[in-house]
Structures are given as structure tokens and as C-alpha cells.
Amino acid sequence: MKSLFMAGLLCFAAGAVYAQKSNNTEWWKEEVVYQIYPRSFKDSDGDGLGDLKGIISKLDYLKSLGITAVWINPYFASPNDDNGYDISDYRAIMKEFGTMEDFDALLKGMHERNIKLVMDLVVNHSSDEHEWFKQSRSSRTSPYRDYYHWWPAEKGKPPYRYSLFDVNHDAWKYDAITDSYYLHYFSVKQPDLNWENPRLRQEVYDIMKFWAEKGVDGFRLDAFQFASKDIAFPEWPKGWEKDFVKYYAMGPHLHDYLKEMHEQVVSKYRVMSVAEGAGNTMQDAHNLVDAERKELNMAYAFEGVDIAKPEGYDLAHFKKVFTKWDAEFAEKGWLSIFLANHDQARMVTRFGNDTPEFRDLSSKMLTTFIMTMRGTPYYYNGDELAMTNIRFETIDDYRDVAGRNEYEYQKKNGGDLKKLLEDMKLGSRDNGRTPFQWDDTKNAGFTTGEPWLKVNPNYKTLNAAAQEKDPNSALNYFRKVVALRKNNKVLVYGKYSLVDEQNPEIYAYTRELEGKKMLILLNFSQKNASTVTDKKLGKLLINNYPTVQKVSGNKIVLRPYEARVYEVK
Ligand code: GLC
User: Fold this and answer.
1) Index of the ligand 1 atom closest to the CA of residue 86
2) Which amino acids are annotated catalytic?
3) CA nearest 150: which of 172, 129, 130?
4) Strand pairing partners for 557?
């Protein structure tokens, strides 16, 4: 089977309409979240890996972007089988990233600049090198045995479970020490934690308190939908593969755990919370985030980001999906808005057009989309420069455990390796993880050493330093559009209405709040496209082209990938 991860690991279908109620204002609804992949952001000591001191050296850059919060991917002690998503000590800093003093300095530096820090909480699984697992695997009577899921071999082979990153896609690994199998939905070095065990849950809440006491401002719950499982591990009916999330996610006690976590930790601090994924149905998404349920703050649904496929995507579908999610959350609950993250290839390659002619324009257009939709925007580092996919030719250039193990799997099972490598050029997560392109010096100014993952050769011209100097760069446009969002509550809370729905090239919508109205026009195509408006246009607030074209009459012609935001009188 093709890697379900690459095919869109966590894609979620939609369901029923949900109830009414006014959207209350909340600080976390007004944040603009910027995501930092620390391994690739900035290396301060020449070991080829980004680190906390590297981020510290770029705090003024972060401030200059105008973003208000940063979600940092895991920075905890880890053997790095999955780049930090395999944690061996939740209270220690990954040695390659620095020390706890570095972390404290980073948090202080962020807070001094009014930037919040959202941490990644990876607790569906730990590393197999975590002390809990070492104890757990040591004997069947260990007090830590039930921190993980074990299946004694005398019961025979456990019912099949798919593993996303395993080289055989088998989530059960036989462990001779106790003649038992352990469960790992991700790599063999990421054993799943047993959330049924109240002691384990307390450990996690204590870890959360430890970081909340330090002053972190939020938690992003990694792969959390998988945390609750039917631990009888029944056989699943044929065809489960087609409905991966239905079988793997949103287990029987997930909501109980989230409520407990909210009561014991989240409610006691000023922190925001978001989990990866939003369930199987719209009802699930609401059950995770509706305020009165006291579970999470906002949904992070994958249906939008999953629209882009290697063969392209259809704007009508894109509009439909984002319009549907907005409508479902118009009165209740809150969404995250994003088109990329560290598990995706680059935004401009997937959703825009990364040829030199259209790269910056299409990237700016997509940025305009993210910053003008209702929901909290999550923007991935490097996208503000319009960084593109690197498109590696050989498997040796890849570092991602998911991609490398998929290659091994297909090699063993007679897969079409040529096709896989072609697909990876578009879909591999490593495309989104190449080092940040700071300037045109060696290794793009990311490191003085050997970078852990190759730098995209286009850094010579595509880099932050060059873009700083150019008032029309993607970077400077990003700053403008972030400022526009922050200065206009209408873009945060305003009612969204789709206009010119059938237009095959243009995505147009209005946002409206307390008498203020804006019209957003986005040309998703590489040719001129037009729309007819009945709105009385006021000031042009933002435009991704350096020259403005006058509108005469009610027909508006947009140039390739043009984005405009108008005030409506
Ligand atoms: C999530 C993370 C991904 C990681 C996986 C296992 O999907 O976003 O990067 O590999 O969980 O922790």
C-alpha cells in the first residue's frame, strides 16, 4: 500500500451542520502564528542543525514580520528518528538544539517582543529511548508496563495495525525481552503511549504544567487523535484502509482525556490549545473545540491542505472546502487556517506556481488568502520568501524516516521506485524542511558546517537578504498583509461570504463586521481573469502587483495570480 502519510495522512471528511451562537472575541483568535522548524531555521554552532541560539539570533527578524506567536516543532531530548517527534525526555532540551538556559533566553526574548510561544506536545507516543519505555520493555511486571501497549506472544500474532512510518507498515513490533509485541503507529522507535492508564495521563499533565509554569503560551497536540484506542485490539473489517482515520483516530475516550487535560492544565494557565487533525466528521471537529465543551480552542482540519495533489487541483473544490468549513464554524467553534506545515511540501509548489515568472506572485496571492480568512492563520517558515520544493533526484538525499522507509518498503515489495521518486519530488516532507534561505553566502547563511539536509540551490537569488532590499518582495508583501490583518478586526471576526461562486479562475469573497466590509479578489490562474462586481469599491488596501490597474465600470480584470483587497463602501 502506498504510504498513507504521503497520500494525506490525516484527511478528514465533513458532516452535519452545527448550531448557532455568537463568536466571542478571544486573544488566541487574533494571533498570527508563524511555525518554526528549528532543525532548519538557523544554526549557531556550525553542526549543520538549526538550534535555539539560532532562533534567538533571528528574534528581530520574527518581530519585523509582525507575527504574534510562534509554534516551534519539538525541541526536546530525542534520538531524532523522526526529527524530534520521538522524545526521550520531555523536560530536557535536545542536545543538538542547546540547553534549558537557551530555551529560557528564547522565551524571554520572544515575550519581550510580544511574541507568544506555542510548543509541540508529542504524547501519542514517546521515543523507545524514553526511560518509561526502557522500564516498560524490561519485564512484564514493570510498573511502567502499562505506559505502552503490549500484546503477549502466547496469544498469537496481534490483529494487524498499519504503521505510517514502519519499513513494513506493521505497527506491531516483536520484542524478545518479554516475548511480546508493542504498538507503534509511527516508526518502530515511536511506541504508542497507553492513555488508558491514569498514571501516564498524570505524567503528561505534569509535563504540561512544567512548561506552562515556564511561561509557554500554548500547546499543539501532535497526532493526538490517535491517543485513544480500543485496547482490546479487535480485527478490523476488510476495506478499513479506505477509511484510515475512522479506524485509527478519535478512539472511545479521546474527549474524556481532553476534558481532563483542560480541567487539570489548560484552564489553569493562559494558554491556547490546538490538536493536529479535527476528527472524521464536522461533528467531531465541533466536539473537539466548541467553547462550552472545554476541550481545545481551535480545530486544525486537513481537508483544505490535502486538496493539492501531484496532478494539481481544482479551484472550485478549493472554494467549496474552505467555504464549507467557514460556514460550519461561523457561529460556534474556531478554525486554524493554513496551506502548509512541516509535513507538507512547499506551499507555492503545491498550491501556486513555482516557476520564476509566477513564484512570487502566486505565493503572495496564497498569503493574502491565508491572512484574509476567518480563523487563526498558521504560516510556515520560509513561505514568506516563497521557498520552493527542492525535488531531490535520489533517495540518498532524503532524510525523512517516512520517505526513506516507504522507499525501502516498495523496494522489498516490487513497487515502482521511479514513480515513487517522482511523487516524492512533489510530495515529500523534506521539500518543506530544507534549510531556511537567509542570504546568498555558503549554505544560504543557514550554517557554516554541513547542513543536515541539502540547501535548495535557488538560494543564490531566493533569500531573505535580497528580499529585504526589494520593496516588492514576497517577504515585504508578507509584512504588509500581516499588518493589514492585525489592524482590521473584520479580517479576524468578520462574516465571510463567497461571491462569483462559479468563477473558475477567481476566488472572491467579502468579510464584514460592524459596518466595515472588505472584498478579497484572488486570481488562482496564470492568465488574466475577470469578475463583475456589484459592490461599490472603496480604497484598494493591498495589491500583490507593484502597479495598480484602474477599475472602470463594474468589471474587474485581474492579472495572473493577482490579489487585491478592497474596502467596500
Ligand atoms: C505528526 C507530526 C509529524 C510526525 C508525526 C509523528 O503528524 O506533525 O511531523 O512525524 O506526527 O509524531
Assistant:
1) 12
2) 222, 276
3) 172
4) 530
Which residue, judged by its Cα, is nearest atom 7 of ligand 1?
A: 223
Regarding the beta carbon of 249 and ligand 1, being less than 6 Å apart is answered no
Verdict on whether the full-model pTM lies above 0.85: yes
Contact 554, 530 (CB under 8 A): no
Task: Please list the residues that pair with 274 across neighbouring strands.
Answer: 220, 298
Of 383, 356, 359, nearest in space to 371 by CA: 383
Atom of ligand 1 nearest to the CA of 341: 8
Mutate to test the pocket of ligand 1, among 6, 39, 72, 222 (most ligand atoms within 8 A of CB): 222
Q: By alpha-carbon position, which residue is closest to atom 2 of ligand 1?
A: 222
Cell of 99: 540547553
Could you tell me the domains of the chain? 3-126+198-480 (3.20.20.80), 131-183 (3.90.400.10), 495-568 (2.60.40.1180)
Determine contact, residues 121/84, Cβ cutoff 8 Å.
Answer: no
In tens digits, the chain (569 residues) has pLDDT values of 334 444 334 333 333 333 333 458 999 999 999 999 999 999 999 999 999 999 999 999 999 999 999 999 999 999 999 999 999 999 999 999 999 999 999 999 999 999 999 999 999 999 999 999 999 999 999 999 999 999 999 999 999 999 999 999 999 999 999 999 999 999 999 999 999 999 999 999 999 999 999 999 999 999 999 999 999 999 999 888 888 888 999 999 999 999 999 999 999 999 999 999 999 999 999 999 999 999 999 999 999 999 999 889 999 999 999 999 999 999 999 999 999 999 999 999 999 999 999 999 999 999 999 999 999 999 999 999 999 999 999 999 999 999 999 999 999 999 999 999 999 999 999 999 999 999 999 999 999 999 999 999 999 999 999 999 999 999 999 999 999 999 999 999 999 999 999 999 999 999 999 999 999 999 999 999 999 999 999 999 999 999 999 888 899 999 999 999 999 99
